[in-house]
Amino acid sequence: VRLRSFAIQSLSFTIEELIALMPVFCECLKHEPYIANDLIEFLLGKCRKSLLFTISFVRGISLNLTMFEYRPLFDVYKSATGQLCPKHIFESFEAQDVLAAELESFYVSKRSEKEAYALRTHLKDINAKLFSAGQTMPSFFPPGRTCLSIDVEKSFLHAKSNARPMHLYFISKTDFEFQVLFKYGDDLRQAIEEVLGEGNGASWCVQW
């Protein structure tokens, strides 16, 4: 604990550099023995000084701490930033949870042998349920971009990874394309390593 505390106190980075390290910080939060710890105090302190950092932190915990076993952590940290973050960012959490549940159902259901066809059918259903109804954008989608739909034809399952993560392509109103690697289950890092050789161009990697 003392070593971690010393390491946190020794951090001397700009806000931009700390934002780049946000995935590392969020991963570390999973392994802190107490909800109240030096790392979260450090991060919340930066949140109070920078709205950009706050939004990055909120998006970071929504991507890394919304899995069932970490949900209590997410709820506490989300509450701690409640007065610091715009309301639409928190609304996007709900959209992300709905989207995650829909994507997760593909993995837990009995899929047909023609997985590519099954995935396209599943994604078409998601587009019909969520985006055609004006669903708020997921929190991993870039701020200021409105997601129209998932590109069903481009999205696919990575064949070289045993976990078969989804590589999803999201489309916005301005034809901006945003790629997300989605995996259900444990060890997202292993899945990332397994697909890097395929030229993975995902901007965010999401796990539930």
Based on the model shown, name its key terms:
single chain; 208 residues; alpha+beta; five-stranded mixed β-sheet; globular
Write the layout of secondary structure elements.
Layout: H1 2-9, H2 15-20, H3 22-29, H4 38-49, H5 51-64, H6 71-80, H7 87-108, H8 115-129, E1 147-150, E2 156-157, E3 166-172, E4 177-183, H9 188-196, E5 204-207
Parallel strand pairs: 4-5
Antiparallel strand pairs: 1-3, 2-3, 3-4
Helix pairs in contact: 3-5, 4-5, 5-7, 7-8
Describe this structure in words.
With 208 residues, this protein is α+β, with helices and mostly antiparallel strands. The chain contains nine helices and five strands, in the order ααααααααββββαβ. The chain has helices at 2-9, 15-20, 22-29, 38-49, 51-64, 71-80, 87-108, 115-129, 188-196, and strands at residues 147-150, 156-157, 166-172, 177-183, 204-207. Strands 1, 2, 3, 4 and 5 form a five-stranded mixed β-sheet that branches. Strand 3 (166-172) and strand 4 (177-183) form a beta hairpin. Helix 3 (22-29) crosses helix 5, helix 4 (38-49) packs across helix 5 and helix 7 packs antiparallel against helix 8. It is globular. The model has no long low-confidence stretch (mean pLDDT 76).
